[in-house]
């Protein structure tokens, strides 16, 4: 399996410190092993017991029904509401007056919101949505900056049983429209703009463009954030602050079936447009709740900060649903890590006394580049746990995080999971697991992970293979919106009975899992999944381009960078001007995050005799590597020589 050959040989091990062991929720490695065994051998008992900690409106009758595989049913018969799990269960307890969010805007404005206040605003917005005719089973798109109103909007949808579809604010109008149309959304919640690196970034104009001519969208609710000039459509648009202030704060949560859809979240796949990953209510909430409890060990006095954007799954599970269902206080930050200075995150950690911090490897590598002097200016002694997610963390970045941010005191939780898995799947547990830099270590409860070969046979220690999950788990996706075939094809067709994650992995001689990156045509730029296909389509949609092949090359900061090999139409001159036009074009079509780092013009692309582009070769060229592997199927070898510049 040359594509996923392992080159990493990391031998350092960090046993849990005495302090972490004392604070651990589980008493020992043996206890973890016993519980893990139970969760695999007898998931009904394990998850049945854990799920009883959620506030069910009506109790469930069965734990798992896998008879309709690959469509799982968890907690059938149970009625529950995700906003009530997040909020209502805390009313009348000491948590109600506790701060749910310590929010900080990029310009330095702040807002502290208690659980009871958040509950009130969620009920009000839920009533506004209802008043506009949004009802259970509808879909609502949210296209917002990182402001408290985004959390309110997510929970307001959940409260009335409308599925939310959050679209990251960095996506273009085009990408937003595609998602609104696919999801069949009838309302959009947005803001006039949000702050990013000192400037207001307009959002409402993108929404106007995205919904132009879409009759299904009858309502656009707009938060006033930057007071930037915007157009107004009086039939369709309403101001958030006006509507909410006039709405009643009495809105009982809709009793949802455990398997009713909670949300859609679009993510990139290998082929075709973005996939609307569908999550349901009971199982997802249990996954978010349990992982926060065991992995982040959320305790009453913690101040927790996840730096992700709510536009990604990490924000859904680890800014909103998981932390709130655990009744913890979270920090939420609107802006960029270097605005107004490169120590901004550490300043906030000090200011709020953050104890648990969760970020992405790409951010850690960026901080490394900026230099130790920035975190060095702040007191980070409140930190006790550090997490990472989004891509493989290289041991060097892991060590830096451990030493500079964690003061060699905090366990590093390298958590592997996906939009599809809903919650953390592979992870160390603090105070229990001895960590190794670069390894996501062991499966969480109920996760039957394995590394297998093409035939589905488990591979030996240190052999590369494909990561699969052999049993259903509560927070697993329940499908791709309106596309059952694609769901079966993408995740279940390779092995039939095992979930195919699309990542390469190995297990070492101690059973530790090491993730080796994607094995399909998905590129991971700064922890954001992009499909090569979408970037190619964006390029080809430009008049001058006839064909394009997009691959990635390793990048020190972003993990992977996009390289586009592009063939132009007859008579079209290449050059730097066209290159930057095309880069801008991709940014407009998809969003800035998809902007290629490099565009190489070529007369032809290397193809097999059946006409398939040989991306493996292009990847080698883009990374400046020698071409390895088989070139015998290539149609015209001179193309390769030209691309390398040998001719
Ligand atoms: C990658 C993010 C290595 C992986 C929650 C996965 C990781 C994809 C890790 C999912 C990790 C995520 N180590 N790789 N700790 N975490 N990945 O859907 O390739 O945005 O398949 O979900 O990110 O990305 P997604």
How would you explain this protein's 3D organization?
The chain is of the alpha/beta class and 647 residues long. Among the domains are: 107-254, Rossmann fold (3-Layer(aba) Sandwich); 530-644, GMP Synthetase, Chain A, domain 3, CATH 3.30.300.30. 30% of the residues lie in helices and 22% in strands. It is built from 20 helices and 30 strands. The strands form 8 sheets. The protein has an 8-stranded mixed beta sheet with strand order 12-11-8-6-7-14-15-23, sandwiched between helices. α2 (29-41) packs across α3 (43-51), α7 (173-183) crosses α8 (204-211) and α10 (282-294) packs across α11. The longest helix is centred in the first third of the chain and has 17 residues, at 115-131. The protein is globular and about 75 Å long. The two termini are 31 Å apart. The model has no long low-confidence stretch (mean pLDDT 93). The chain binds 5'-O-[(S)-ethoxy(hydroxy)phosphoryl]adenosine. 5'-O-[(S)-ethoxy(hydroxy)phosphoryl]adenosine binds at residues 267, 312-314, 389-392, 414-419, 440, 501-503, 515, 518, 524, 529.
Morphology:
globular
Q: Count the helices. How many?
A: 20
The percent of residues in helical segments reads 25-40%
The bound ligands are: 5'-O-[(S)-ethoxy(hydroxy)phosphoryl]adenosine
How large is the share of residues in beta strands?
15-25%
Major sheet: 8 strands, mixed
Mean pLDDT: 93
CATH class of the domain at 107-254: Alpha Beta
Structural class: alpha/beta
CATH architectural group of the domain at 107-254: 3-Layer(aba) Sandwich
Per CATH, what is the topology of the domain at 107-254? Rossmann fold
């Amino acid at each position: 399996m040359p594509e996923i050959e392992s080159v990493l040989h990391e031998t350092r091990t960090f046993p849990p410190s005495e302090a972490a062991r004392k604070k651990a929720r589980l008493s020992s490695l043996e206890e973890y092993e016993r519980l893990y065994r139970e969760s695999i051998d007898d998931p009904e008992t394990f998850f049945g017991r854990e799920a009883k900690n959620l506030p069910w409106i009506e109790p469930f009758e069965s734990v798992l029904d896998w008879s309709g595989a690959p469509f799982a049913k968890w907690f059938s018969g149970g009625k529950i509401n995700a906003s009530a799990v997040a909020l209502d269960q805390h009313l009348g307890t000491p948590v109600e007056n506790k701060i749910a969010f310590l929010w900080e805007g990029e310009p330095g404005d702040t807002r502290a919101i208690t659980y009871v206040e958040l509950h009130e605003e969620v009920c009000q917005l839920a009533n506004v949505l209802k008043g506009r005719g949004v009802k259970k089973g509808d879909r609502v798109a949210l296209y917002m900056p990182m402001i408290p109103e985004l959390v309110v909007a997510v929970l307001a949808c959940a409260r009335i049983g409308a599925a939310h579809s959050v679209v990251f604010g960095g996506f273009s109008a085009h990408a937003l429209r595609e998602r609104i149309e696919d999801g069949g959304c009838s309302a959009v919640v947005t803001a006039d703009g949000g702050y990013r690196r000192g400037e207001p970034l307009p959002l409402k104009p993108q929404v106007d463009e995205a919904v132009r001519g879409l009759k299904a969208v009858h309502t656009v609710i707009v938060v006033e954030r930057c007071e930037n000039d915007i157009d107004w459509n009086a039939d369709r648009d309403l101001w958030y602050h006006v509507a909410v202030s006039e709405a009643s704060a009495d809105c009982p949560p809709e009793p949802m079936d455990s398997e009713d859809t909670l949300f859609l979240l679009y993510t990139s796949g290998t082929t075709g447009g973005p996939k609307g990953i569908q999550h349901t209510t009971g199982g997802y909430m249990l996954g978010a709740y349990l992982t926060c409890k065991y992995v982040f060990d959320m305790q009453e006095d913690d101040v927790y900060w996840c730096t992700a954007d709510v536009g990604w799954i990490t924000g859904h599970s680890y800014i909103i649903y998981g932390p709130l269902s655990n009744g913890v206080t979270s920090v939420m930050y609107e802006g960029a890590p270097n605005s107004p200075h490169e120590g901004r995150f550490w300043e906030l950690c000090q200011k709020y006394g953050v104890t648990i911090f969760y970020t992405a490897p790409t951010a850690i590598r960026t901080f490394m580049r900026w230099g130790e002097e920035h975190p060095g200016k702040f007191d980070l002694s409140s930190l006790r746990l550090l997490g990472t997610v989004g891509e493989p963390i290289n041991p060097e970045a892991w060590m830096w995080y451990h030493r500079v941010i964690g003061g060699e005191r905090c366990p590093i939780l390298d958590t592997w999971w996906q939009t599809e898995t809903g919650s953390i799947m592979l992870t160390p547990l603090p105070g229990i697991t001895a960590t190794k830099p670069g390894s996501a270590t062991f499966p969480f409860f109920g996760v039957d992970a394995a590394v297998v070969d093409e035939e589905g046979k488990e591979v030996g220690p240190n052999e590369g293979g494909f990561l699969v999950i052999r049993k259903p788990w509560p927070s697993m996706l329940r499908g791709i919106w309106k596309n059952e075939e694609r769901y079966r094809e993408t995740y279940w067709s390779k092995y039939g009975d095992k979930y195919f994650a699309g990542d390469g992995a190995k297990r070492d001689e101690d059973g530790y899992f090491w993730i080796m990156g994607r094995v399909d045509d998905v590129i991971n730029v700064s922890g954001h999944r992009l499909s090569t296909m979408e970037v190619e389509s964006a390029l080809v949609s430009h008049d001058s381009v006839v064909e394009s092949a997009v691959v990635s090359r390793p990048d020190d900061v972003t993990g992977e960078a996009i390289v586009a090999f592009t063939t132009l139409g007859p008579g079209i001159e290449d050059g730097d001007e066209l290159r930057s036009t095309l880069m801008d074009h991709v940014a407009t079509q998809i969003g800035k995050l998809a902007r290629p780092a490099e565009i190489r013009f070529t007369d032809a692309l290397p193809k097999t005799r059946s006409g398939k582009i040989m991306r493996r070769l292009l990847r080698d060229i883009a990374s400046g590597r020698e071409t390895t592997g088989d070139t015998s199927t290539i149609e015209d070898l001179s193309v390769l020589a030209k691309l390398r510049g040998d001719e």
